[in-house]
Design a protein that fits this description.
alpha/beta, Enolase-like, domain 1, eight-stranded parallel barrel, three-stranded antiparallel β-sheet, 12 strands, about 40% helix, about 20% strand
């Protein structure tokens, strides 16, 4: 199979809770970046790039630039990944690496369709039957009462693990929110995310040392992004001197960047995302590193959820898969299957390829609304 065409575009979808991203000055929409790879034999693969959340307006032009390197090549995932990665100065991280992740997903979607198999069966001969998931919600803007309602709702949905955000409100209020979450969860799993890759200015090590002295009383399973993801030395110190497991990695684009976390012992739990961290092949290499476990980051449409689910099912190092509770309207319309939570787990999907189809009607319905999402 040879590549005939590669296109990229942004889409904008409403999400269920319009207050969720209030601190990002959003318009009630979430942008996503989609990649389509077309082959000469007529098969089309779909992939998602996490970069679309922040710069969906650039999808078309950047993918058009990359297309000239890819037309006529065989559908060879490693070869094409290396082609993009080898573009001097710009291919190894950042926007091109994230978009390359979406291209890699689309290529695997094509291979799955050609072989009439789900992608996890392309990735491994021994897929797991299911994977543990956690409900990712608890907006940093939520009040104590909203956190209480939020935990009750995710328990009703079948989750037994819950992640909430802190760092936007004053620390005493955040601690009340964490206390309420722990109270409502009982013995279930609590994860805490300080989202310091998003909030500005991020916390210093000194602030983290104060915060952790309180957080440990609530027995969180992990503490995510307590510092900015580029503050590797302080993350290393915190990891070595804190009993709570430190998690991070969603902002990283390649094994090369995860290597720094490895060398510095910067985290206990890595959090790659196949839509941002190089795609399936690169994430497989990342998970072969010596981190004790992986928990996949997901914060996009149904394409992102399913792509990471396939990888989680295929890889023994992955212990948790993130399931965003900020569900997009577009998700159900593009997925060939439903995500069902049973006893805190999701079973492997019975689909061909990734399990996504984006029609022209869907593209028109969710046409990109420019300047509607992230602002500096």
């Amino acid at each position: 199979m040879k590549i005939k065409r590669v296109i990229g575009y942004g889409l904008s979808s409403p999400f269920q809770n319009s207050s969720y991203l209030g601190y990002l000055d959003n318009s009630g929409l979430k942008n996503i970046g989609i990649i389509e790879v077309h082959t000469e034999c007529g098969l089309v693969g779909f992939g998602e790039t996490y970069a679309g959340v922040y710069c969906a307006e650039l999808m078309g032009s950047v993918v058009k630039y990359l297309e000239k390197y890819l037309i006529g090549l065989d559908v060879d995932t490693r070869l094409i990944h290396n082609k993009i990665f080898s573009i001097p100065y710009v291919g190894r991280n950042g926007l091109l690496a994230s978009i390359g992740s979406g291209i890699n997903i689309a290529l695997y979607d094509i291979i799955g369709k050609k072989e009439n198999k789900p992608v996890y069966e392309i990735l491994t001969d021994t897929p797991k039957d299911d994977v543990q998931v956690y409900a990712s919600n608890g907006s940093s803007t939520y009040s104590v009462e909203e956190i209480s309602d939020d935990v009750e709702s995710i328990l009703d949905l079948g989750f037994d693990s819950y992640k909430m955000r802190i760092g936007y409100q004053d620390l005493p209020i955040d601690l009340q929110r964490v206390e309420k979450a722990r109270e409502k969860l009982g013995d279930n799993i609590l994860m805490i995310d300080s989202i310091m890759g998003t909030l500005n200015p991020p916390w210093t090590l000194g602030i983290c040392e104060e915060v952790v002295s309180y957080l440990k009383d609530y027995n969180p399973y992990w503490w995510e992004e307590p510092l900015h993801p580029t503050n590797i030395e302080d993350m290393s110190y915190l990891t070595l001197h804190t009993d709570i497991k430190i998690a991070s990695g969603e902002a990283l684009n390649s094994k090369m960047e995860f290597d720094l976390y490895d060398v510095y012992n910067a985290v206990d739990i890595i959090q790659p995302d196949v839509t941002n961290s190089g795609g399936f092949d690169e994430c497989k290499d990342i998970c072969e590193m010596r981190f004790e476990e992986a928990a996949l980051h997901v914060w996009g449409s149904g394409c992102a959820v399913l792509s990471n689910l396939h990888f989680a099912i295929s890889n023994p190092k992955v212990k948790y898969l993130e399931i965003p509770m900020m569900k997009l309207d577009i998700t159900d319309e593009i997925m060939d299957t439903k995500i069902e939570i049973i006893d805190g787990k999701v079973k492997k999907p019975n689909v061909v390829g990734i399990g996504v189809n984006i029609t022209e009607e869907i593209k028109e319905k969710y046409k990109l609304v420019t300047d509607s999402n992230y602002r500096i």
